[in-house]
Amino acid sequence: MPDTIRVSVNGTPITVPAGAMVSAAVAVAGANGFRKSVTGQPRGPLCGMGICFECRVTINGRPHCRSCQIPCEAGMEVRTDA
Amino acid sequence: MPDPVFDVVVVGAGPAGLSAAKRAAESGARVALLDDNPKPGGQIWRSDPGHWKPLLGNLEPMCGVRVVTSPEPGRLTLEKFDGELEIGYGKLILATGARERFLPFPGWTLPNVMGAGGLQALVKSGLPISGKSVIVAGSGPLLLAVAKYMREHGARVEMVAEQASDSALVKFAFGLLGFPGKLLQTALFGSSLLGIRHRTSCWPVAAEGSGKLESVTFQRAGKTWKERCDYLACGFGLIPNVEIPLMLGCRLSPAGVWVDDHQQTSVPGVYCAGEVTGIGGLDLSLVEGEIAGYSAAGKPQAASALSSVRKRHRRFAERLESAFALRDELKSLPQDDTLICRCEDVSYGRVRQCSGWRDAKLHTRCGMGPCQGRVCGGAVEFLLGWKSESVRPPVFPARIGSLSGPKYPQP
């Protein structure tokens, strides 16, 4: 298994350690928020364990994925709407 | 109804679920162990295979799957990232653990304000924390564990702010004399925290920043002051994840899901073990899991033999609860314009005018978003005394495909 994995976050290539969750990749990408709330506020992860839905992003075109519970895979395309 | 595929299905692969699965499998049952995270271990042993591997033995856990509903007794519908499946069970053990209690204060919705366990989980998930400034706040022994972990991973931990008073903590520490293992653990934490500012009777009253967290205002002994930091890791204790048991009709106790001496719930054939029956820590979770595993696999005597161990660990849980009881002043943290429901952006001012949960859901949509009240529920319970005990399937927002037909895995 390689030591690092490359994914793309909003089109930008990001390298993370193997085993990292998508949430870590989005945080490393430096996005200020993972999503926008229903009134347009930026939001990021709160619970880190799949409860709060604040870290949800679109992965390979599939919306509403909880990024804190999904491991990065090589070539994954991640999109935030924040 | 299909024949049960597994004798015992265990939901949750934290310490309680792992020890339940181990004891049930040892007793000859065909066991399936499920978890919604990509790996076993629960939150406490996340990225710590040295702890969970020995308990797992030869069992192949089903990870990354989430319980959506139970179309009929003996069946569960599950969802995973790229599909769905169903599973049959003879006996069911729910070891769904706990989550943090979050209390809303102005600015708590800013990115980089997280749970205490929340930030730890994110760092374990690969977030680089080295060189970042972190403040750990809220209440409970978890705060010290998180501060220690952050420091070991290169963070500058500026302060630990615990809302409980010094006298409550001293009383708690002396009470630990009856629990040598725990005392040692606490002493180790204490010494490794030397050099980190630890403030009791202290809590955050506001978080500030433009677009993300920049500073936090704290209060202690009537004084307020501002601290700059990159992350605020803030949780006010733990609350049990009772949603799946509630969906199945299990009765609650004041602490969590009600269970009998054999960890069986009010629904025959459905057992609960660990934090879901009431917050009690690792040792209690392990022994409750063992009891549930033996009971579900038809070994009541082996289960009964462990009841004195469970009793001892429950006493520790009671001490924990009284030492870290939340003070009433925290009820004045949210202002009228502070959001209480982060999914639907509902302010505290709107929610507190309602007569109860049902009214709040109908008229403000508080608790009606994707998290289904899992975050605001713990706050509303503390702030307004409302407890939500109605859970309807699906227990989490699910894809249509997950509800559309049976797919059985082969054992």
Query: Which structural class should the secondary elements of chain B be placed in?
Result: alpha/beta
What is the β-strand count of chain A? 7
Average per-residue pLDDT of chain A, rounded, comes to: 93
Q: In which range does the helix fraction of chain B lie?
A: 25-40%
Structural features, described:
- The complex is a heterodimer of chains A (82) and B (411).
- Chain A has one helix at 22-28; strands at 4-9, 12-17, 35-36, 42-43, 56-59, 62-66, 77-79.
- Chain A is mostly beta strands.
- The mean pLDDT of chain A is 93.
- Chain B is α/β, with parallel strands linked by helices and 411 residues long.
- Chain B folds into three domains: 6-99 and 239-321, 3-Layer(bba) Sandwich (FAD/NAD(P)-binding domain); 103-236, FAD/NAD(P)-binding domain, CATH 3.50.50.60; 332-384, no CATH class.
- Chain B has helices at residues 15-26, 49-56, 116-124, 142-152, 166-175, 180-192, 243-247, 282-296, 300-304, 307-323, 348-351, 357-364, 376-384; strands at 6-11, 31-35, 62-63, 65-69, 75-80, 83-94, 98-100, 113-114, 133-139, 156-162, 198-199, 202-208, 215-220, 223-228, 231-236, 238-240, 270-272, 339-341, 346-347.
- In chain B, the strands form five sheets. In chain B, strands 1, 2, 3, 4, 5, 6 and 17 form a seven-stranded mixed sheet that branches.
- In chain B, a hairpin with a 6-residue loop joins strand 12 and strand 13.
- The mean pLDDT of chain B is 92.
- The interface between A and B is large, with 39 and 41 residues.
Summarize the structure.
The complex is a heterodimer of chains A (82) and B (411). By secondary structure, chain A is mainly beta.
